Amino acid sequence: MLNPPRKPARLLLSTLGLALAVTPLAACGKTEPKKESTEETSKTADKVSKDGMPIVKEPITLSMMSPDAGQAKWETMPVIQEMEKRSNIKLTFQNAPLDSFETKKNLVFASGNLPDIFYAADLKPAEQVTYGSQGVLLPLEKYIDGGYAPNLKKILDANPQIRKNITTPDGHIYALPYIDLTAVWYMSPLWYNGKFLKALNVKEIPKTTDELYDYLKKVKTSDPNGNGKADEIPFTSTKLDDVRMFLFGFWGMYDEKIYADKDGKVHYSPQEEGYKGYLTFLNKLWKEDLLDHETFSQTPDQKKAKGKNNQIALFNDYFPYFTMGGDPSSEHPMMQPLKSEVAGTPVYGKHPGQSANGTFALSKTNPAPEASMRWVDYLYGYEGSTLFNQGPENTLWKYKDQATHTKEWLPVQGGKNREEIRGTLTPNYGILTPGVNDPEVNKGLKDNFDQFVDKETKEKLVPFAKVPFPNVFLKPEEQSQVTAMLSDLNTYVKQMEAKFVTGQEPLSNWDKYVAQVQKMGSDKLVKIYQDAFERWNQSK
Question: What residue stretch is flagged as signal peptide (predicted)?
Answer without folding.
Answer: 1-26
